[in-house]
Amino acid sequence: METNVQQALILFAHGARAASWAAPFERLRDLSQARMPGTSVHLAFLELMTPRLPELVATLLAELPAGAILDVTVVPVFLGQGGHVLRDLPLLLEELRQQHPALRLKVVEAVGENASVLAAIADYCVAAPGSSPLP
Questions:
Q1: Model confidence, pTM
Q2: Rounded CA gap, 37 and 32, in Å?
Q3: Choosing a second label site near 23 at 20 to 30 A (CA), which of 15, 52, 78, 83?
Q4: Which UniProt keywords apply (predicted)?
């Protein structure tokens, strides 16, 4: 790996009016950060919450040491490929690429489109009939 490259992982979620909605995403960010100590892991939102993706990327770029390159992977934390993932996110990414040509930016599939994620969710669902109910 190049020594002047800073790695960042951005978990990209929709956002909501209720602050409590972000709690599972914050836990996911923290769990991911614990498993990737050499990468800065962040949470960004499409709308209704901050930081939004463009502002987070601008902040990360501003914090870079002189001459460093930012290599960002965006993980859409959406269960499916709806309009936000198919239309809104590509537009945001294109704007970021135009505004920051030196930025290394890639996006992976939405988490709900990944076979191992779906298998983990199915495991949870299958175990649910024997689980104790919520209080």
A1: 0.88
A2: 9
A3: 83
A4: Lyase, Metal-binding
Look at strands 69-76 and 40-45 and give their pairing: unpaired
pLDDT at res. 66: 85
* Predicted local confidence at residue 101, as pLDDT: 86
Cα(32)–Cα(8) distance, rounded to whole angstroms? 11
- State the Cα–Cα distance between residues 68 and 58, nearest whole angstrom: 14
Mean pLDDT of 26-34: 97
Q: Are 130 and 124 in contact (CB under 8 A)?
A: no
Tokens of 14: 């929709």
Q: What is the side-by-side order of every strand in the sheet holding 5-13?
A: 40-45, 5-13, 69-76, 104-107
Q: Which fold has domain 5-130?
A: Rossmann fold (3.40.50)
Neighbours of 74 (CB within 10 A): 21
